[in-house]
Inverse folding.
């Protein structure tokens, strides 16, 4: 049995947004036309999702996240409060006469960013354009991500650097197996 998405009366969700079953959009979130969100997600207050953003299933976006066109967040991800993504490596105001033609087509400026399955991103992190954060990676709060992050990496700092590895359960591990949940990597 499925349940339709819940949209709080104080959320702004455009008509052609795709919302999966059991997804909840809380007060003061805004989701623009062309955004896509999977099943069983939680979109907290103050989040902004631009058209062209893609969110998988079972994703949590905590308060104040900014998700732009060209950002893909795969299934089972956690995005902490006030995480900011960007999608343009050479930003200018599209209203500036010199930049107007560049911004007439998103293919001229938009850079895609991918957050792979199960990744967690700590509060206040800034992610520069064109980044891939690997599956089950964990990014510490307040980090500045300027380079790709491999699967299972524990990464933090400004700019962030890899500080270790994490298990599927989120525990820091020093080998190919987790003493907390028993997971063993290949």
């Amino acid at each position: 049995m499925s349940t339709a998405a819940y949209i709080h009366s104080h959320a702004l969700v455009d008509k052609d947004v795709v919302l999966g079953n059991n997804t909840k959009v809380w007060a003061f979130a805004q989701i623009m036309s062309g955004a896509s969100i999977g099943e069983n997600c939680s979109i907290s207050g103050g989040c902004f999702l631009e058209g062209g953003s893609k969110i998988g299933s079972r994703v949590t976006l905590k308060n104040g996240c900014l998700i732009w066109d060209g950002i893909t967040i795969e299934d089972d991800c956690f995005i902490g409060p006030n995480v900011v993504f960007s999608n343009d490596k050479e930003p200018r105001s599209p209203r500036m006469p010199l930049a107007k033609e560049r911004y007439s087509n998103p293919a001229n400026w938009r850079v895609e960013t991918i957050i792979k399955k199960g990744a967690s991103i700590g509060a206040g992190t800034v992610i520069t354009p064109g980044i891939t954060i690997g599956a089950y990676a964990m990014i510490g709060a307040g980090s500045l991500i300027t380079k790709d992050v491999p699967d299972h990496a524990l990464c933090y700092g400004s700019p962030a650097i890899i500080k270790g590895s994490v298990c599927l359960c989120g525990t820091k591990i020093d080998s190919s197996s987790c003493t907390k949940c028993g997971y063993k990597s290949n």
In short: The longest strand covers residues 160-166. The CA atoms of residues 80 and 123 lie 4 Å apart. The chain has one domain: 6-173. The two ends are 36 Å apart (CA to CA).
